[in-house]
Amino acid sequence: MTAPVVQTPTTKIPASVNMLSGTGYDNGEMSMAFLLPACYTTLEACPKPMDERIELSEEPECLIAVATFSGWCSESVVKRHLQELVASTAKDGLSTGTDWQLAQYNPPFTLPWFRTNEIWLPIKNSEEELLQVLEKVVKK
């Protein structure tokens, strides 16, 4: 599998709080997305879903901070990596959104140490602010 399966908690909670407790993983309220190959350039060109519960949507381009890790995605593991990502972005002066996503790249039968997972956190800084942050990081 080369494109990730992307999971998003349906309840919107700031990334700085206990995001997983009571939402998403606990009560099964999770949306799931599959990224389609680049050959589908419009929604009209995409295959039509056979199930009415499946919706096709086009997401706008955005800049994200990413934490990559291996292993299983338990609530505690995801929470730990999310908190580390939030702290790291704040330390670097980045402003993040509150909606995060979990991307998983492997089939379920992949051994834990071979699994690739990512937490995606949107960056809300302007282009000018990002350049200032990058200058600071490069000087370190």
Describe what this molecule looks like in 3D.
The chain has a 5-stranded antiparallel β-sheet with strand order 2-1-4-5-3, with helices on one face. The protein has helices spanning 75-91, 127-139, and strands at residues 5-9, 30-34, 64-69, 101-104, 117-122. The chain has one domain (5-38, 59-139). The protein has 140 residues and is α+β, with helices and mostly antiparallel strands.
Short key terms for the protein model shown above:
5 strands, five-stranded antiparallel β-sheet, 140 residues, alpha+beta
Structure described in brief:
With 140 residues, this protein is an alpha+beta fold. It is built from two helices and five strands, in the order βββαββα.
Largest sheet: 5 strands, antiparallel
The ordered H/E elements are EEEHEEH
Q: How many structural domains in the coordinates?
A: 1
C-alpha Rg, in Å? 17 Å
Structural class: alpha+beta
Please work out how many helical segments DSSP would assign.
2
- Approximate helicity band: 10-25%
* Shape by Cα distribution: globular
User: Span from first to last CA?
Assistant: 37 Å
Tell me how many strands there are.
Answer: 5
Average the pLDDT over all residues and give the rounded result.
80
Which strand order spans the largest sheet, edge to edge or round the barrel?
2-1-4-5-3
Catalogue the unreliable spans.
11-26
Q: Indicate the proportion of strand residues.
A: 15-25%
